[in-house]
Sequence to fold (254 residues):
Amino acid sequence: MKRVLVSGALGKMGSEVIKAVRQAADLEVAAGVDPRAEYDVDGVKMFTELAPAITATKPDVVVDFTQPGVVVENLKTCYELGVRAVVGTTGLTADDVEKLKRELVREDWAALIAPNFAIGAILMMRFAQEAARYFPNVEIIEYHHSQKKDAPSGTAIKTAEMINQVLTGQRETNPDEFEKLPGARGAASSAVHIHSVRLPGYVAHQEVIFSSAGQLLTIKHDSTHRESFMPGVLLAIRKIGELEGIVYGLEQIL
Ligand SMILES: NC(=O)c1ccc[n+]([C@@H]2O[C@H](COP(=O)([O-])OP(=O)(O)OC[C@H]3O[C@@H](n4cnc5c(N)ncnc54)[C@H](O)[C@@H]3O)[C@@H](O)[C@H]2O)c1
Fold:
């Protein structure tokens, strides 16, 4: 039985992970960590800090769905205490991940960092990268619930990075363009503009819009419920023992 410690246990994703782990016959919840925890929840032993929780419960794997501001520190705690980690917290760019790969090197340790654990989102990114070989004009619109802290989303950043790797054709640009309101044209990840919508009612959605003369191609993915991420999270928990070092993206283990 693999024992899983859930960091960010009281959050929207953390509580969904606890539910999914409890339903899996080969996994069990070792404990939860959340600074907001005041007492044990639903039979899950709760801690307010990660390091004491790891020392006390000796989990096989930590799953982290916390906040962009704390994820690096949590990952380093897992590394120092030798516990493998599955990280879904967003806010890290490919450059951040490269830096962590150089810093956190240890033979008997691994972490999987995935900006998106939904299989549909992985396919959306792959299809977008494929389309980018033929369509140099592309913009991304991502839509999330209003409580999301980071913008643009980790998925949008990763999609833009994957597109930028293959973009070669001549893009149509307008030298006379200017913004009447700052930010109107979105954030730029190299050649790719990203627009972030934050409204209650959304979960996690993204459109990648390609165009060339006289045609538009839209690749769209919707996570309408957080259970969409759970098969990917459970797969990562089960496979983390076979990995070495820091692995970026669920697609690496599919
Ligand atoms: N990779 C994916 O597939 C995926 C999917 C959805 C959301 N996310 C990301 O997961 C993260 C969490 O999302 P959410 O919607 O659950 O947010 P949330 O705000 O509902 O939950 C975050 C929880 O982390 C807790 N927390 C804060 N600091 C902590 C610390 N130091 N240690 C332990 N817990 C701490 C908070 O108290 C809160 O309960 C975000 O970065 C979000 O973008 C990733």
In short: Helices lie at 12-23, 50-57, 71-80, 94-103, 119-132, 154-166, 230-239. Residues 7-8, 10-14, 33-36, 50, 65-68, 70, 88-91, 114-117, 148, 204, 229 surround nicotinamide-adenine-dinucleotide (CB under 6 Å). The chain has a mean pLDDT of 95. The radius of gyration is 19 Å.
